[in-house]
């Protein structure tokens, strides 16, 4: 059974996470961060975004509902995060099928994100191997995307996380597969986008870690936590309204040990 | 008892609905669409909005929190929807009392929406017969607005839906009245705005229907579904927090047959 | 035991509250206003914002996620509220640490808000005595901020409310301390921001009051109501997901008399 020391660090350090994220999921994202012990802040003005990125422990850049102003804020926040070596996560929502965000994602990825999280079609598109999905739905099987994820990890230096029935966490020389959760999570908006935010929180929590695989393990722990909460909540209800409530409660209650009992992690070289 | 074959189509076809909607209700709107079996996408950048409208099955244009940029996105999406003959729904939130959205609504309605959904005062204002309401509250009785709805349907070709204690669905030569739900729905933000989104989903589901009344029946089915979920949820709780959760669960669980048992539909020529 | 006649007025008059507030908390803010008997409207277009401020009973200006356009809307709404003597509330989220909103807050406060609500670090920053907090978290003890709150109340004429473990309501010659609620409220995003909106609602409800302390008592009643709902909800659950639902139900159910039983109010000269 996997233990997740990163989740202890997450609770202890209460990382401050700046979320440059889409307006659809801001509320649930903030609540998820609070439930897991992190502190959310949504500061997206182009002038203020880099000011905040310099003091944040982690930054999430989610392209779901970009405007010209928020795109500028993202560019500035990514540049600031680079200067302060603050970990940041790119969530390339719906990249591939839409022009503005696709160009923006390719530009931002040059800023060397610590992690990239998306569904299979988004990772394929960002790796240059696919045409993207219809919104936040994955239309490519997770398995077929592993090669693209590896190529993307190699090119960018990021840990690449591919969400699907199982989540694959891919970095140089390592693939971890997390299995857990419940399909009803697909019917609650923001479970995936919140995962990007918790990934940024976990990276912030291990920020000064010295282990070789600190970042990979942090991304893995974030995925395990949200997945385990899904497994646990689904024991009570699989209807989306009440599941959403139970999932938030579970995120708050879960200990790192319990997470290890609720999900399966397989490691591949 | 009315059966709703359109609701079977909605589940089977899982229409992709682009929501150009207000930021207050984006989360609940997305969750409602997922609960009823549709797929939401909020793409509101002026360049991307028409790109997405061309691949969506239905488009919602809700004027609740317009900015200059989202107004441009709406214009572009409506033009694109016209080119691809994608059904789109206009929800003229608070039109009548506020200058920018009132001008915008009058402009957009020339783009021939498949349906227009609003409360009585909004429909009156859009028909040129009233001065609008105070936000999303109706201040005119549904009954007095039927003539205006008929005139608006005639002028625009749209199915016009007037929300109130009973909902009236008005098209050329036909008025259907849906009775159900519970007054607590007025105390949960977004139940009305979500109805606009589900209306777009239902129109997308019957998009290639050949029945004379396909669009009217789709709009009717959407209203019946959300109303039936309200009736069902209110059997458990009428407090707004827990009702909101129960309503989402009900939307997910309801079969088309059960919808017919929970609401009353009256037809008028 | 304190009774809260202002809460009766709130239910009777159903004040219309314009919320120029951050996009993270718009949904919960609207639901909270509906639950306590007020009517929410989020109208933030720079041209429409002052149109609406002239008909609203109260206006909330919350700086959480400002853009250039919403900043213009805030300036215009505040000016309009000044013309019609409509009460308005300033919530200076994260002021102190971020440049654009700090300048904006100092500018807006010249428009003479009826009330200013924030955590200790925000009130310190606005009073010119501190450097601000990291987002919505307070980093200064409520007690140390009372002098700054008094100075701010004197300079602006506003009732100044400082949120913390106990809330302090400060105006010329009067300090009221409200104790109640539960720490889990800190883990539900928007409980504080909603308090700003309910404060605007309560001020709108007593708008034509003739008592010396009408505004102070209205701000106090708003704080007592949300705090009491927290106390009551926490009797059922202290997990953030289910607490959030129970809190909304409690806001809807609480009578003014019951509020007085659930919180403690201490008065100081």
UniProtKB/TrEMBL annotation, chains A, B, C:
ATP binds at residues 117, 163. Its cofactor is Mg(2+). Its EC number is 2.7.1.50. Keywords: ATP-binding, Kinase, Magnesium, Metal-binding, Nucleotide-binding, Thiamine biosynthesis, Transferase. It catalyses: 5-(2-hydroxyethyl)-4-methylthiazole + ATP = 4-methyl-5-(2-phosphooxyethyl)-thiazole + ADP + H(+). The keyword Metal-binding applies. InterPro entries: Hyethyz_kinase (IPR000417), Ribokinase-like (IPR029056). Pathway: Cofactor biosynthesis; thiamine diphosphate biosynthesis; 4-methyl-5-(2-phosphoethyl)-thiazole from 5-(2-hydroxyethyl)-4-methylthiazole: step 1/1. The keyword Aminoacyl-tRNA synthetase does not apply. It is an enzyme of class 2 (transferase). Substrate binds at residues 42, 190. Signal peptide: none annotated. GO terms for molecular function: hydroxyethylthiazole kinase activity. Catalyzes the phosphorylation of the hydroxyl group of 4-methyl-5-beta-hydroxyethylthiazole (THZ). Belongs to the Thz kinase family. This is Hydroxyethylthiazole kinase. It comes from Citricoccus muralis.
């Amino acid at each position: 059974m996997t233990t997740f020391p990163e989740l202890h660090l997450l609770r202890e350090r209460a990382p401050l996470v700046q979320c440059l994220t889409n307006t659809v999921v801001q509320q649930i994202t903030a609540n998820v961060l609070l439930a897991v012990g992190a502190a959310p802040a949504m500061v997206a003005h182009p002038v203020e975004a880099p000011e905040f990125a310099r003091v944040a422990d982690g930054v999430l850049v989610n392209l779901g509902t970009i405007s010209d102003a928020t795109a500028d804020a993202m560019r500035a926040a990514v540049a600031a995060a680079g200067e302060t070596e603050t970990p940041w996560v790119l969530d390339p929502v719906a990249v591939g099928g839409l022009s503005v965000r696709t160009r923006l994602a390719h530009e931002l990825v040059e800023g060397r994100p610590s992690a990239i999280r998306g569904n299979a079609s988004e990772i394929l598109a960002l790796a240059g191997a696919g045409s993207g999905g219809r919104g936040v739905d994955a239309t490519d099987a997770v398995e077929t995307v592993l090669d693209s994820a590896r190529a993307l990890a190699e090119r960018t230096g990021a840990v690449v996380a591919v969400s699907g029935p199982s989540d694959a966490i891919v970095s140089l020389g390592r693939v971890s597969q997390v299995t857990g959760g419940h399909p009803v999570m697909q019917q609650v908006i923001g479970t995936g986008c919140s995962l990007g935010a918790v990934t940024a929180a976990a990276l912030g929590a291990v920020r000064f870690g010295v282990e070789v695989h600190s970042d990979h393990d942090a991304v893995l722990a974030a995925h395990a936590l949200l997945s385990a909460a899904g497994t646990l909540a689904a024991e009570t209800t699989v209807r989306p309204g009440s599941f959403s409530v139970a999932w938030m409660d579970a995120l708050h209650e879960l200990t790192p040990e319990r997470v290890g009992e609720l999900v399966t992690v397989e490691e591949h070289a």
